[in-house]
Amino acid sequence: MKTAIVILNWNTRDYLERFLPPLLESIKGLDASVTVADNGSDDGSAELLRTRFPDVRTILFDRNHGFTGGYDKALSQVESEYYVLLNSDIEVPPHWLELLVEWMDFHPDCGACGPKLLSYGNRDMFEYAGAAGGLLDAMGYPFCRGRIPGMVEKDAGQYDSPAPVLWVSGACLMVRSSVFRALGGLDDRFFAHMEEIDLCWRMQLRGWKVWVVPSSKVYHIGGGTLPQTSPWKLKLNFRNNLLMLQNNLPSTIALALLKDGHKAQEAARLGIRKATRLIFRRKILDGLACCVYICTGRWSLVKAVADAHREFSSLGRTPSAQEVENLLGECPGAVVHGLYGGWIIPGAVFCRKKTLKTIRSL
Predict the structure, then answer these.
(1) What is the model's pTM?
(2) pLDDT tens-place string over residues 114-140
(3) How many domains, the chain?
(4) Each residue of 36-46: b (16+ CB within 10 Å) or e?
(5) Gyration radius of the chain over CA positions
(6) Consecutive H or E run containing 143
């Protein structure tokens, strides 16, 4: 098949029962297939797939390998030109897939793209996970066109033009299989959360583009696996944000220095130094967030942040100057889109700005 849609399932039997039928209906007559990779569920998901959806290819794992490990293992068993990573808690309308495939076909420099993500429960609102394409601020905080920290916009067509972005949500992500494999897939250290940002960022450093294609839209429930209040989810977000910055910031800064006239060796060395300083500042901000949790008595969240930093110290690895220099030599013309030069938190939290447009007007 030209396009392989792969759903990674972990204990979301009810979502499979609800959303697989419209998904299968939407790809009738298309050169596309659906595979469900089950991450060791114990809720009857495998039995449902066997009895209710016998024509859907199923890959069964004996345990939960996380989003990263599960997808890397599943996609290694799938052959297609395009992969679509699709959450089990997404409802798709007709023609959602054709629009993404068409975009990839006509834009050979596009490594990944994604649809507009709308809320399943409130369909004229963007969904928090990805909205209309993801960006990153100067302190490494992800946000979206249509969603800033703590606030989600109504979809009034304000982001209906295709746009290059830093990332699109892993809830519905189309990627060229050749690019996915060349990059080594998802970073398995992440387990879950922010791995798609890291993947899309690494793509751009290798000269590929990432686009949001708003003519395609899907409806996402969100929080289907881990609730927003989960201390484990908080730990993964804090830890993985640091891993993501460590993976990509040195080369991104070095690329800008190279374009400013620095020699590759000097750009690589300065890029690592500046990235290390920014990550240190980000860890201080994490510590301030931890102080808020202490003041409000949320001790499980305090522990989550502490665990995140401890695990980052053991899992993290700063790229060497030679590695950064090699990347600069291979892709000197790479452009990283979707990096916002300001810090989004003060405007969103303290000034109560409600949209990306008002944030940028500060």
Answers:
(1) 0.95
(2) 999 999 999 999 999 999 999 999 999
(3) 2
(4) bbbbbbeeebb
(5) 20
(6) strand 142-144
